From TrEMBL:
Residues 15-24 have a biased composition (Polar residues). It comes from the Bacteria. It holds the Pfam family APH. This is Aminoglycoside phosphotransferase. GO terms for molecular function: transferase activity. The keyword Transmembrane helix does not apply.
Amino acid sequence: MRAPRNQAQPGEDTPSGSAGTTDTPAYPGQVVRSPLALAALATVAVPGLDAFDVRRPAQPGSDFDTAVVIDAHRNRWVVRAPQHAAAGAALEAEIVLLGMLASEAERGTLPFAVPAPVGFAHLPEGGRAAVHTEIPGEPLRLDRLGPGPGLAADLGRAIAAVHELPTSLVENAGLPAYDAGEYRSRRQAEVDEAARTGKVPPALLRRWEDRLEDVALWRFRPTVVHGDLTSERVLVHGDKVTGILHWGDACVADPADDLAWLLVAAHPDTTDSIMEAYQLRRTELTDPHLADRALLAGELALARWLLYGVRTQDPEIIDDAVAMLEELEAHTREEQNAQAESLLA
């Protein structure tokens, strides 16, 4: 599914050129900063940082201004500054969680790095910019994932390590925590809202409602989840996951959500390797319907994309979501027909 990027990755950068240092308001309540302005914030946040070069992300985000600052010793630092008050509030909660996650990484509980801030700079309009050292690695490419004990298995273990974390980490950071019943109700509310748009094929609505009414499907133990995993948020080097970025949507919820993007987009042979490594890493996995809920979450992501377009009154997003929903409905119908024919054979 094509969805809006929250922000670009530190590894995807281009020379900043000669952009000015003056903050430019995009609309009331939002501020967009140049790379040089962000570099200046980084020197305030990290005493002794001597900025030598600054690079802009290849894909700017809609909520945060981000830049990679290179110091005189060729060390690379990432500076993030919220563009509006809501992003600033989300960053503050994320900062608390990242501090605790960094401690887990130091202890080896997490087998990868997280972007824990090492310094802050107060912003004139309120809030703070945060600076962290750049995590080595490149964004994951699903087309390079193959079956077997390599990167696919390490990815499964990395996600499992997140789900093994104490839920108190998220709760103490003030981030949301849901039990299984509450989370199922949230999913039902999404389906109901999508149905009211009149743009979801009726067969898909029936399919989703049947799964939401299946009580057995929703018997799971909530875990810490990243909440917005995509290939851009996972950094890799060789056969290892080196870092996971953007923890602002972390919560205690359904672990299936962190697996949905992989089960939907990766090759089936690869997902088998991911899930096998994931299950071996989990210590208390008694969840026979995990993959079923992950596939459902992948389908419901299309409904959320539609709702995003409706709320923002963006006809291009709405048309895109409707096209993908119709494609999903056609694919589902073909699968059902094939299954029926095999039973009659």
